[in-house]
UniProtKB/TrEMBL annotation:
Top-level taxon in the UniProt lineage: Bacteria
Pfam families the UniProt entry points to: Cation_efflux, ZT_dimer
Residue intervals of the Cation efflux protein cytoplasmic domain: 228-304
InterPro entries, per the entry: Cation_efflux (IPR002524), Cation_efflux_CTD (IPR027470), Cation_efflux_CTD_sf (IPR036837), Cation_efflux_TM (IPR058533), Cation_efflux_TMD_sf (IPR027469), CDF_Transporter (IPR050291)
SUPFAM superfamilies, A to Z: Cation efflux protein cytoplasmic domain-like, Cation efflux protein transmembrane domain-like
Membrane topology: Multi-pass membrane protein
Gene3D superfamilies associated with the record: Cation efflux protein transmembrane domain, Cation efflux protein, cytoplasmic domain
Protein name: Cation diffusion facilitator family transporter
Ranges for domain Cation efflux protein transmembrane: 32-224
Family: Belongs to the cation diffusion facilitator (CDF) transporter (TC 2.A.4) family.
Keyword Methyltransferase attached: no
Length: 394
């Protein structure tokens, strides 16, 4: 495979994808190949567009020229994102990669809007398109090159998990669609005098705008704080429960400061009767081992849970049964019993799905409903409830 040969030739230690320097070299390779390929494509399509007098082909050419700018932004983005952390940016500069992707997206949108105007003018004032075989063949070759470039971006983007390179792959694939439509319009122009060129130019412009919209979404989401990768969430949950004396985990928070710069925190439920020194050693080891295995920085907070008090265990079982009558509640945690005699407070958090948006009144109704269910077991007990949302699916 050509892309693998290029990687082996130009990326030193290419298999060590967690190394920031190696990752940077992948970004440079993707950017440089993108620049060379798109300059070639621009030259081919601009020449063809000029020869056959086609606004659709010319629009497609300038779409490729915008991709040259995108590749330059990608290169600078990888360079700047690998700057070390400093006093003003203690978590590094990794999000610059997302910002560079956002700049690329706006460049794509600008090209799309410009060619909507040009295509509209061509519809109002049509001029004939001259079909010839050689330009037609050159456009077919350009499509094949763009298909390869899309697969190349996807390959290296998956290897280093780069949203910028993956987005470039999607953008290249959308170019294949737009170029295919342009080639089709050029072929159809041979058989009709209708001003199809301007209409196809509008279609190409729409494809460009749609690609720009998707690029903005893909790069804006991590900047705004999108939900973390589901596989990462599941791995953290699974790995932490593998350690001795950790019986449960909840309240996972994941913050993305750029590729390879993820900070996470989670609460781990541990027996309250175990030595603090012993459980601290386990928690400390879990933090280090999970962080190294997943290439993140994990902080674990200990939540002591009573496991040898029959009254508390019974109350926990009663709460489990009571919550079965309330489908909106997925789980509960941080359960403890406070007070003496018959009158006791049951303090705990309940977790509802992130899709459920409760008003303050609805939240109070939920707490009241849980209390009603609990009082069926112990009328003198009172529940003090905090409502959590399960944004991460754990």
């Amino acid at each position: 495979m050509v892309s693998d040969l290029l990687i082996k030739k130009f990326v030193k230690n290419y298999s060590d994808v967690k190394n920031k320097k190696v990752r940077e070299r992948y970004g440079y390779l993707g950017g440089i190949i993108g620049i060379l390929a798109n300059i070639l494509l621009f030259g081919i399509k601009f020449t063809v567009g000029t020869l056959v007098n086609s606004i659709a082909v010319t629009a497609d050419a300038f779409n490729n020229l915008s991709d040259v700018g995108s590749s330059l932004v990608t290169i600078f983005g990888f360079k700047l994102s690998n700057k070390p952390a400093d006093k003003e940016h203690p978590f590094g500069h990794g999000r610059i990669e997302y910002i560079s992707g956002l700049i690329v997206a706006f460049l794509v949108l600008l090209i799309g809007f410009e060619f909507i105007k040009s295509s509209f003018e061509r519809i109002k004032n049509p001029t004939p398109v001259e079909f010839s075989v050689i330009p037609f063949v050159l456009l077919l070759v350009s499509i094949l090159l763009k298909i390869w470039l899309s697969r190349f971006y996807k390959n290296i983007g998956n290897k280093i998990n780069s949203s910028a390179l993956k987005a470039s792959g999607v953008d290249a694939l959308s170019d294949v669609v737009s170029s295919g439509v342009v080639v089709l319009s050029l072929f159809i122009s041979r058989f009709t005098s209708l001003p199809i060129d301007g209409y196809i130019g509008m279609v190409v412009s729409a494809v460009i705008l749609y690609a720009g919209y998707n690029l903005i979404k893909d790069t804006l989401d991590p900047l705004l704080g999108a939900a973390p990768d589901k596989e990462l969430v599941e791995d953290i949950q699974r790995m932490i429960l593998d350690y001795d004396h950790i019986d449960g985990a909840h309240d996972l928070l994941v913050h993305n400061y750029g590729p390879g710069r993820i900070i996470a925190s989670i609460h781990a439920e541990v027996p309250s009767n175990i030595s603090v020194v012993k459980i601290h050693e386990i928690i400390d080891r879990a933090e280090k081992e999970i962080s190294a295995a997943l290439d993140i920085y994990l902080v674990i907070h200990m939540d002591p849970v009573t496991t040898d008090d029959e009254e508390i265990l019974a109350a926990r079982e009663e709460l489990t049964d009571a919550l079965k009558a309330i489908p909106i509640v997925k789980s509960f945690h941080d359960f403890r019993v406070v007070g003496e005699g018959e009158k006791k407070n049951l303090i705990f958090d309940v977790v509802i799905d992130a899709d459920h948006t409760l008003t303050k009144a609805e939240e109070l109704d939920l707490q009241k409903n849980i209390n009603v269910q609990l009082k069926k077991f112990h009328p003198e007990h009172n529940a003090i409830i905090t409502v959590d949302k399960d944004y991460l699916g754990v």
